[in-house]
């Protein structure tokens, strides 16, 4: 096992990794920007190193500073968390060149999955069902129109290097196609420095369902069921649940095994998530994330598996602590991403937290790095905590969630707590009857 892990992240995920390390008897090193000198991940870690000024590009994305911090402190592994450098293949390569272990998959797997066109081609070859679309990048309008004729409209133009919902444009009809392609290309070029785009059939009312997988270096590969992340705003997840209210145990076993077998064929190592859209009983791959996801705790709650612990153990060359037969599901879990934002306009609301009481009691877990008197800096994303609630079944989980939201106290900044309180009282939500566009429609109606 590792002796010392450097955590190349901030906020709740830095704390989550710290906790898993401590339980494994590992020393931790926090890195931080000057804006985060008083952050909880810095306070709790065994050692800390300042890696630069507030802007993420100069600190949390500053590879040279982070490697220097690992060298100075003698860390033998680096955990990247999610976001920042977690899916940066060059970072994984540089870490390996310094004889430090990257807690994640190989740089090659990161590279393949980071390019969505290559990712689709790769997983298509190992039996994963795909969204019908162009065969690779579309180079000319002639090619694009041909795809439109074959597949029909609406079509979605997507950036091959896309992420965070950016670089995606809808073409309702043939007349929109040229403009959708040129705006998607321009957006992708400026956001990712790569203007390659491809076309996909636009699914009108699908759910977003993703399968959690874990693979060790001894040939063991398991899936841990699914998460339903259909409640989104601007293609960003807002509330997730495990398991999905839309799948039967047979459907779960089927897509779980298809995914597991594919990951085994790819020789993938570590934890990862295969994301699908699900419509009319069919699954369609959209992308694979080669890292821990924000919403991993809901899977932990329904399976009893500590995913971060498994991830660290895998990187250290140990065997998965369970086999597929040992993976069982019980109860229901929901996660609310609580942001420091206006609950109506979603305008970020950084500032000082004055009165803080976090929810607790049976079945309630609050993964957060904020504390009473903490000042939320304006430089990073606005998530301040993940409220994760577990119940015997979905109704019980919702009742607990309602109770936990009501006892959450946090003043000084605006938060999205009131949004969740309203959302979970909606009848369609309670019936589990929603799709990826449902939340935006609901928000527009409740304006
Ligand atoms: P990103 O990497 O930018 O998050 P994804 O490919 O994961 O992009 O897609 C993000 C979200 O965009 C999905 O969860 C879904 O809501 C929507 N989306 C993506 N592809 C399609 C599609 N073919 N049809 C309809 N919606 C889609």
What does this structure look like?
With 447 residues, the protein is of the alpha+beta class. Helix content is 34%, strand content 25%. The chain is built from 15 helices and 20 strands. Strand 12 (270-279) and strand 13 form a beta hairpin. Helix 4 runs antiparallel to helix 5 (107-114). Bound molecules: adenosine-5'-diphosphate (ADP). Residues 131, 156, 162-165, 200, 202-203, 208, 232, 235, 275, 277, 286-287, 436 line the site of adenosine-5'-diphosphate. Adenosine-5'-diphosphate binds next to strand 12 and strand 13.
What distinguishing features does this structure have?
single chain; 447 residues; alpha+beta; Rossmann fold; Dna Ligase, domain 1; D-amino Acid Aminotransferase, Chain A, domain 1; 8-stranded antiparallel beta sheet; 5-stranded parallel beta sheet; binds adenosine-5'-diphosphate
The biggest beta sheet, please?
8 strands, antiparallel
As a percent range, the share of helical residues equals 25-40%
- According to CATH, the homologous superfamily of the largest domain is ATP-grasp fold, B domain
Which value, in Å, is the CA radius of gyration?
A: 21 Å
- Give the end-to-end Cα distance, rounded to a whole number of Å: 53 Å
Count of β-strands: 20
Low-confidence stretches: none
Q: Shape, please?
A: globular
Counted by DSSP, the helix tally is 15
**Structurally, how many domains make up the residues?**
3
Amount of beta strand = 25-35%
Instruction: Walk across the major sheet and give the strand order.
Output: 13-12-9-10-11-14-19-17
Hetero compounds: adenosine-5'-diphosphate
CATH class of the largest domain: Alpha Beta
CATH architecture of the largest domain: 2-Layer Sandwich
